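Q: Predict the bound structure with manganese (II) ion.
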Amino acid sequence: MNLKINIAQLSTELEILASFSDAPAPAVTRVVFSETDLRARRYVKELCANAELTVREDAVGNTFARWLGSEPELPAIGTGSHIDAIPNAGRYDGTVGVLAGLEAIRALQRAGVRPRRSIELVLFTSEEPTRFGIGCLGSRLLASALDHSAGEMLTSDGRSLNQIRSSAGFSGPLGDVPLCDGAYAAFVELHIEQGPILDRDRIDIGVVTAIAAPASFRIFVEGEGGHAGAVLMPDRRDAFLAAAEIALSIERIARSSGSIDTVATTGVCELFPGAINSVPSRTRLDVDVRDIDQARRDMVLLEIERARDVIASRRGVTVRTEPINADPPAHCAPAIVDAIERACAARGLQHRRMISRAYHDSLFMSRIVKTGMIFIPCRDGISHRPEEYAAPDAISHGAEVLADTLASLSSL
Ligand code: GLV
Ligand code: MN
Ligand code: MN
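A: Predicted complex:
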C-alpha cells in the first residue's frame, strides 16, 4: 500500500489554523477557551466532518473524531495532539499532530483502506499550562491523573475551570472525562521535535522511547513593602530581590546536578504592587523543572527548597511553595516503537530513537494505553517562539509514517 499525503492541502490547513491567533503573524497565541481557541476548534471540527468522521466532545472539551472500522466494537487506535498555543508561540507545536493526523486518516480513506479497528483523532484540551497553570489538562483527566475537584480548584483570573469551560460550551461532570478501560488499543502522537537533534543530524524521523519527567511549582515570597524613596536600604525586606536570588539559585542547582539533562526555568514572576516607586511586598515565581531521571529531578526539587529557606532567612522574608505537578517520566510501548520503525524503514526514511525533553499528551496517554510518538525535525530546534518552522517535506514524512503506523495497528 502506498499511502499518499496531500501536503499542499495540509500546509494550507496549517496556515489557516495559524490565522486563529491573538498575536500578529508569524506569532501564534491561542489560549484555551479563548474566543480564538473556540473558533480554531470549530475549524478543525469542520475539517473532521468533511472527512466524514464522527465528532464528540467531553466535558473539558477534549474532542474525538472517529472513523469507524469494520469491527467498531474493538478498542480503537488513537492519534492526535493539541491546538492551544502559549503566548507568542509558533504554528507547528501540537497542530501538526492534529492536522497531519487528520490527513493520515484521509490518506487511508483515499487509498480505499477499511480499517478493522476504528481510528480516532483526538484534540486534547489545554496541553499548555498558560491558562490554568498545569500542562496536559485534558489528557490528565482522560487518564484519571487529575481529580475532578480540579474543576473548582483550578482558576484563571478569578474564575474556576468549571465556570470557564461552561461559558465555552463544555458542561457536564468532569468525573465523566476519564476514558474507560480498553477505549484504545494504541495511541500514536506526531509532533515536532522542539529540539535540535533531527535538524542538525539530517534525520527524517525521531522515534520516541521515553518522555522526560516534568515538575512545576509556585513560590510565594512575602516581605515588606514601602516607599521607594523613604525606606532606607538596610531596612528593606524586598520580596522581589529575595525571589530573584531564589531564581538564580534554581539555575545554579540545575546546572550543577551532574547531568545536562536537568533543566529548570523560572518562567513567571509577578510582583505586588508592581509600582516603580514602591518596594515589592509580595512576589510569585512559577518554576518548571525537568529531567529524564526522576530521582535526580526530585533531588533538585529538594535542593531548591533548602536554598529557598536559606535565602528567606538571610533576607527576612517568608516563603511558601505550592506544588503544581511532579509527574513520572513515560516510557513508550516497545510494540509501537517497533511499528513506527518498520514504517520508517519501509519508506527508506532515516530514523533515530530519542527521548522527548518536552512533555506531551502522550505522557498521560501512556498510563492507560500502549503509546508511541513520532518526531519530525523543526528548524534549528526552535519552538515556543514565532520562528518555529517545520518544512513541508518533514511534515509530509511524519504524516506518511503516521498513516502507515495507524494502518498497521488498526489491522491487528
Ligand atoms: C510543552 O509544551 C512543554 O512545555 O513541554
Ligand atoms: Mn508547547
Ligand atoms: Mn506540543
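A: The pocket of glyoxylic acid (ligand 1) is lined by residues 128, 135, 358-359 (CB under 6 Å).
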